[in-house]
Amino acid sequence: MFGPAGHAYVYRVYGMHLCLNVVAGTDGEASAVLVRAVEPVSGIDAMRRARVAAAAAGRRVRDPARDASAARGVARLQADRLVSGPGLVGAAFSVDPSMNGADLCADGPLRLRLAATRPSVVLAGPRVGVAYAGPPWAARPWRLALADSAATSRPTSTLRPPTADGRARR
Prior knowledge:
Low-confidence stretches: none
Strand content: 5-15%
Order of helices and strands: EEEHHHEE
Number of domains: 2
Number of strands: 5
Distance between the termini: 29 Å
Strand order of the largest sheet: 1-2-3
Number of helices: 3
Structural class: alpha+beta
Helix content: 10-25%
Shape: globular
CATH class of the largest domain: Alpha Beta
Largest sheet: 3 strands, antiparallel
């Protein structure tokens, strides 16, 4: 989180889920963006396999019945729900702690690429799961989503298009 912009910051949350952040600020200053959800456009079958493998790896005891049940559940998911949460991003992209610090702008197992088309409208609003931070931090409009995408980690009803100066509308 304190590294150069464009690098991965990987950490484990709740002792079990690996989360991916993109460092976004100046080297030495804490600044990163949590990747809460991804809209899959290719590699969907590989993401399904990785989700099932991550679920199996998270169990202490091998259980073929639970593995099969997890595989059936993941197979039934619509693509826009496959990577719809921070822990699911880590699982679907096989993120592991060794990727911490990886340059996401270079070729490698994780990389950022420009979209083929520009998003129509970016929505902004309060973040999810940070009420404990209190005002003004919990209300900062630092949760972003594409208006025309169903691939979000939570409903977008609290999100609005930002104003011309970049602030979130209330």
